[in-house]
Input
Amino acid sequence: MARLWLGLGALGGLLSVALGAFGAHALRGRVAEDLIATWGTATTYLGMHAIALLVCGLLVLQRPGLRLVTAAAWAFLIGTLLFSGSLVILVLTGTRAWGALTPFGGLALILAWGLLAAGAWRELR
Output
């Protein structure tokens, strides 16, 4: 399981940098400025939560069987896909309805941080 979180965390970091550069160079002048800001939010959250997945992976690597930390990693993954993914699709398609998924991603990310805190408190004694 640790390999999954470490690999996905690294992939998330890669995508965060690549998509950030794409937004800074390829999207300027092609989409509205408010959508450039939305793109920036998507890539920032992607990068931040890629690091969170790496932390979960390192914890699970050291102590396999950390149920709350593993649950946090799943919630980080789902939250990032919904939050950042919906914003990226919104910007690329111009279909604002994709923004309806974003709050669900945000809730999953809040849950993930809570699970990680609970895991640190209860499982890492």
